[in-house]
């Protein structure tokens, strides 16, 4: 092994993403990922529980971000406004490195196992936001509806953001795109009153 270099976790994550894109997730081994950055498999497992976790390791911090954003929303904020603010912050998290987000999405989209894990993670966000709303005194059904509606709008905005990035169109900001989708959802729901 080579001389020690800082940020093994980041280097491993970048190398894994590159190898997954080149070879496919299933055909890439932990040994290959570790070797590509000059560390041992043992070092890899100090940073990640398995090769899937490389794609999902920021989820805990993002989950904490959305939960805190809901909890810290102004007292006067409606449940949907609190969820919207949390998901705009979540969108900004992806916006920090759009290329990495899109490379990751391509790998996840190519694997049924990873898509399933992505849906489980998204469900965890809905549950956490609903829990944070209930902690604010919001009735459980309302809390769940706001969290699920927000998550559905975010999922649609995220898919559109991914497609825009791959198409070569002028890039858009994910938080703004999320707000557009949320406004359209409100319009769709308002139309049910007619």
Automatic annotation (TrEMBL):
- Ranges of residues in domain HTH tetR-type: 6-66
* Keywords (A to Z) from UniProt: DNA-binding, Transcription, Transcription regulation
Endpoints of the signal sequence = none
Record protein name field: TetR family transcriptional regulator
Question: Which source organism?
Answer: Streptomyces xanthii
GO terms (molecular function) for this protein are: DNA-binding transcription factor activity; transcription cis-regulatory region binding
InterPro entries membership: DNA-bd_HTH_TetR-type_CS, Homeodomain-like_sf, HTH-type_TetR-like_transc_reg, HTH_TetR
- Feature: DNA-binding region: 29-48
Lineage in the entry?
Answer: Bacteria, Bacillati, Actinomycetota, Actinomycetes, Kitasatosporales
Q: Which domain of life is it from?
A: Bacteria
């Amino acid at each position: 092994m080579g001389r020690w270099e800082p940020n093994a976790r980041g280097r491993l994550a970048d190398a894994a993403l590159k190898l997954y894109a080149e070879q496919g997730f299933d055909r890439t081994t932990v040994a290959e990922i570790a070797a590509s950055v000059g560390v041992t498999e043992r070092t890899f497992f100090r940073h990640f529980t398995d090769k899937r976790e490389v794609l999902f390791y920021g989820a805990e911090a993002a989950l904490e971000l959305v939960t805190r954003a809901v909890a810290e929303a102004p007292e006067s904020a409606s449940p949907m406004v609190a969820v919207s603010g949390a998901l705009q912050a979540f969108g900004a998290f992806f916006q920090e490195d759009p290329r990495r987000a899109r490379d990751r999405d391509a790998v996840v989209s190519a694997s049924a196992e990873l898509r399933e894990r992505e849906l489980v993670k998204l469900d965890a966000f809905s549950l956490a936001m609903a829990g944070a709303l209930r902690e604010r005194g919001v009735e459980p059904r309302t809390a769940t509806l706001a969290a699920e509606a927000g998550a559905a709008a975010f999922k649609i905005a995220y898919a559109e953001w991914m497609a825009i990035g791959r198409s070569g169109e002028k890039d858009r900001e994910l938080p703004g795109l999320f707000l557009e989708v949320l406004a359209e959802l409100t319009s769709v729901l308002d139309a049910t009153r007619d």
